[in-house]
């Protein structure tokens, strides 16, 4: 029996793509480059700075200039973490429904606490979350199971009693390793291939409210 629901943040709970793309385009402008369209950066949003720098500069973390660009990108993003970011349509209703059923919910993300807390606060949901686990809360982030196991401990529940909802293959891998049921959010970013049907999740949802079908 599912007793709690945990959500990934970027691409599952909230559409953060516009603000991450905005920070990238500011950085590109500083380097004399033109902006990249949102449709190009959107699929890579769940990969954070790594995905944005790949979309904008075509570089990987082993590039000599990567770390300098990453630090500057994150500084720019921190200044505008919730300008155009919004909860996905249906998330508000889903959270209301969970709370009416007295089902606690939380957030487990690879996003650093530096961004997670102010973002959730700006979205008006921080105080409602039963737990928030950021990318630097524990030593290893997803796809390792550590963040999900930590969330289950905070909730005082067995991992098998928590449902995880995510839009990236790493979310499914982390949940599987944690022994936690997981559904893939097909309305999210989905990475490069854009197809979550091969991830071997326990289910796929096309709208947030479909999460209720798995309780």
Q: State which percent range the strand residues make up.
A: 5-15%
Q: What is the annotated CATH architecture of the largest domain? A: 3-Layer(aba) Sandwich
Distance between the termini: 7 Å
Instruction: Walk across the major sheet and give the strand order.
Output: 5-4-1-6-7-8
The tally of helices reads 8
- Please outline the major beta sheet: 6 strands, parallel
User: How many domains?
Assistant: 2
- Give the topology string: H per helix, E per strand: EEHHHHEHEHEHEHEE
Q: Roughly how much helix do the residues carry, as a percent range?
A: 25-40%
Query: What's the shape?
Result: globular
What is the CATH fold-level name of the largest domain?
Rossmann fold
Question: Strand tally, please?
Answer: 8
State the CATH class of the largest domain.
Answer: Alpha Beta
- CATH homolog superfamily of the largest domain: HAD superfamily/HAD-like
Low-pLDDT windows of residues: none
Q: Kindly report the average pLDDT value.
A: 96
Provide the gyration radius in Å: 17 Å
Structural class: alpha/beta
């Amino acid at each position: 029996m599912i007793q709690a629901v945990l959500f990934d943040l970027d691409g599952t709970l909230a559409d953060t793509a516009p603000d991450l793309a905005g920070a990238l385009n500011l950085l590109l402008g500083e380097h004399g480059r033109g902006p990249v369209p949102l449709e190009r950066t959107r699929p890579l949003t769940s990969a954070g700075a790594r995905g944005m720098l790949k979309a904008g500069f075509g570089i990987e973390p082993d590039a000599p200039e990567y770390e300098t660009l990453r630090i500057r990108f994150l500084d720019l993003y921190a200044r505008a973490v919730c300008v155009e970011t919004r909860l996905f349509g249906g998330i508000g209703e889903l959270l209301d429904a969970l709370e009416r059923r007295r089902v606690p919910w939380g957030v487990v993300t690879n996003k650093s606490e530096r961004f997670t807390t102010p973002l959730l606060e700006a979205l008006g949901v921080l105080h409602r979350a039963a737990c928030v686990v950021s990318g630097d809360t524990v030593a290893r982030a997803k796809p390792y199971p550590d963040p999900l196991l930590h969330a289950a401990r905070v909730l005082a529940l067995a991992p098998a009693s928590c449902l995880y909802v995510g839009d990236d293959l790493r979310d499914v891998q982390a949940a599987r390793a944690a022994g936690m049921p997981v559904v893939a959010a097909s309305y999210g970013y989905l990475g490069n291939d854009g197809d979550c049907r091969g991830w071997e999740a326990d289910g796929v949802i096309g709208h947030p409210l479909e999460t209720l079908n798995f309780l």
